[in-house]
Amino acid sequence: MPELPEVHALVSDLRSRLIGRTVARLDVVAFAALKTYDPPVSALDGLTITGVERHGKYLDIVAGDVHLVIHLARAGWLRWREKAPLATVRRGAGPLAARLVLDDGTGFDLTEAGTKKSLAIHVVRDPQDVERVATLGPDPLDATFTEDVLAGILTAAGRSQIKGVLRDQRLIAGIGNAYSDEILHVAKMSPFKPASMPPDDIHTLYEAIQSTLRDAVARSEGLAASELKGEKKSNLRVHGRNGQPCPVCGDTVRQVIYTDSTFQYCPTCQTGGKPLADRVLSRLLK
Asked: How do residues 157-192 score in pLDDT, each as one tens digit?
């Protein structure tokens, strides 16, 4: 799933390609991906793109007084297209969800792999008209996201597990499964640690959030969309590396499996050497 650093890089890349260009049309191929009807998709036709912004993990392409707001979800991606498409797209044709066509035929395709389709496209007059944008928590890279702000979020979350708090977009915008794993590894904290924690731990977590996200943004800056997935995967410390050695201590990275997701951690660095309970695996072993 693209998270804050990848969406940040997509915004930078798309700004250089889109601003000042004119939209010819937006072809929606996967009808279920379109979440709005007013204004219609055709409202984008003929408008000049004036901005590309980010709201958490949401892309916001501004054309006139219309916003094209996109959430790539777990398996969605954006592929830039240098040439005009050879044929008109057909609904239900493979992974293609939508196609933005500019006045010279270039543009980008929105694709989504797999059978579980969650990619979301909104055509709105204000990004705040998208409910999940309107309810986003503070952006962790914004200057207003201070250590005191984080402390308030954690105190309010109480005994909730810190892994879930970091992923909750209503509390902190932009951090998903992968970077929450990475942040907690840097902070040397268990994913199951309660959110309410002493000031020294809050400081450690705040520094881990800032360094992890800013380092990832710096690495992805200037990369094209086609390069971002590989860059992210090659620089992850624990996420997606179950069974591999921890790059810090050499212990074996372990994972916990949920119904529809997993997370990874290092026992030595994060849990005092103790493996965390994996309820799904435990049921299988009974």
From this structure: 999 999 999 999 999 999 999 999 999 999 999 999
* Model confidence pLDDT, tens digit, residues 86-101: 666 666 657 999 999 9
Average pLDDT, the chain: 92
Cβ within 8 Å of residue 152, ≥6 positions away: none
The Cα angle at residue 177 between residues 35 and 180, in degrees rounded to 5: 130
The residue segments making up the domain with residue 19 are: 4-134
Statement to judge: residues 46 and 154 lie in one domain: no
Cis check for the bond before 85: say yes or no (omega within 30 of 0). no
Report the CATH number that the domain containing residue 102 is assigned in CATH.
3.20.190.10
The answer to whether 154 touches 210, Cβ cutoff 8 Å, is no
Domain co-membership, 10 together with 95: yes
Q: Name, of 82-86, 177-181, 220-224, the range with top average pLDDT.
A: 177-181
Tokens coding 94 = 């493979």
0.90 exceeded by pTM: yes
**Residue where a domain stops, chosen among 113, 134, 155:** 134
Q: How many domains are contained in the chain?
A: 2
What is the token pair recorded at 228? 């971002």
Cβ atoms within 10 A of the Cβ of 140, count? 23
